[in-house]
Amino acid sequence: MEFYRIVDVCTNEKRIRDVLTFENLEKMSRHLFEIDTPGKREASIGSIWGEFTLSRDNINGGLRFALVECPNALAWTVTTGFPPERESIVIHLTINRKQKQQQFIDEIEDFLVDHSQCLENIFCK
Question: How distant, in Å, are the alpha carbons of 41, 60, 69, 99 from that of 124?
């Protein structure tokens, strides 16, 4: 399944990478929190779905985050400079399922709303 959110702020790839660090995790989302001191590419986090290793990788246009042990392979990207909205931030979240229970879909939607609002707050400053 795929989910998208557009965050109507103007930024660039470098700023996304500089700002969306594990040190700023709790500013990026109220649904994620650090459990242990993070490494450069991975952090132990708690979330609404449990405890996971969160990976952070540079990609063209921004970053990819993934919950490494998640049975749904939940991952999302935060990018700019490409369609569907070249002048905004695009959040693209995926899971490896065609269908899921509505409760899980609602939790994903809640996460995306929160993440979008947090990114808007971060990048509008």
Answer: 26, 22, 33, 35
The DSSP 8-state label assigned to residue 112 in this structure reads H
What pLDDT digit, counting tens, does each position of 58-103 carry? 999 999 999 999 999 999 999 999 988 999 999 999 999 999 999 9
Q: Count the domains in the chain.
A: 1
Question: Is the separation of the CB atoms in 88 and 10 below 8 Å?
Answer: yes
Where in the sequence is the domain holding 8, given as residue range(s)?
2-123
Residues 6 or more apart in contact with residue 32 via CB below 8 angstroms: 25, 26, 45, 46, 47, 54
CA–CA gap between residue 112 and residue 60 (Å, rounded):
21
CATH label of the domain that carries residue 66: 3.30.530
